[in-house]
Amino acid sequence: MAVLPYTELEAVNLILRNMGEAPVNSLINPPLDVAVAIATLKEISFEVQKRGWYFNTEILRLSPDVSGFITLPMNTLHVETTGPSRGTRVVNRGGKLYRIEPYNNGDVFTAAVAIKIVFGLDFNDLPAAARSYVAIRAARVAQVRSVGDAMSAQDDSQDEVRAMAELHAEQLSAEKLSLKNSISVSGSLYGAYNPQVLQ
Q1: What CA–CA distance (Å, rounded) separates 79 from 96?
Q2: Which pLDDT tens digits describe the chain residue by residue (199 residues)?
Q3: How many Å from the N-terminal Cα to the C-terminal Cα in the chain?
Q4: Can you list the pairs that 93-102 forms with residues at least 24 positions away whose Cβ atoms lie under 8 Å?
């Protein structure tokens, strides 16, 4: 039998079990306890994702529309400038990129801006390690809130630490690959590899 990542339903059922509630077969029209579990899963997923990981962070070059506005995706959790645009402070204000500079605040831009965006993804769009960590953390949080079982919460906390370690290991692996690709690109653009780039 194939081993698959947590689905949202499985994550919610894990939370329900920790709350001392029966599992369910569907998340459509959920009763109160299931709605609480879903809300907890969403809360923890947001808390984890807003930090920015390799899987939900992208570097984009966005151009202003005819009015000079740069509209950001609805699921933008964090935005900052990068590359040639680095140094300009920006935020997401009302779904648009907003510049914060002395005497030059505003949401009208005259040229494209290179930005790094942290996106909020659906649970089922997260990689397996992230799903596991979010599900286990949400289950522990829900248990503490609803049951208050210190002994079980301690066991779950150990599972949570292991899940976080796996997620961090995956993050470090992705960062090493990204660094390797950056060096490769630098070499192709500027000639031979220069080890001083890393210093």
Answers
A1: 11
A2: 677 889 999 999 999 999 999 999 999 999 999 999 999 999 999 999 999 999 999 999 999 999 999 999 999 999 999 999 998 999 999 999 999 988 889 999 999 999 999 999 999 999 999 999 999 999 999 988 887 765 665 666 888 999 999 999 999 999 887 666 655 444 433 333 333 333 2
A3: 48
A4: 95/71, 96/69, 96/70, 96/71, 96/72, 97/62, 97/69, 97/70, 97/71, 97/72
Euclidean distance between CA atoms 8 and 126, whole angstroms: 10
| Cα 100 from Cα 104, distance rounded (Å) | 7
Between helix 8-18 and helix 32-49 the angle, nearest 10°, is: 110
- Give me the residues paired with residue 71 across strands: 96
How far apart, in whole angstroms, are the C-alpha atoms of residue 46 and residue 62? 24
- Dist. CA 136–CA 165, nearest whole Å: 13
Tell me how far apart the alpha carbons of residues 56 and 117 are, in angstroms, rounded to a whole number: 8
Edge-to-edge strand ranges of the sheet holding 57-62: 57-62, 113-119, 76-81
d(CA 116, CA 53): 12
Give, for 99, the enclosing helix (H) or strand (E): strand 96-100
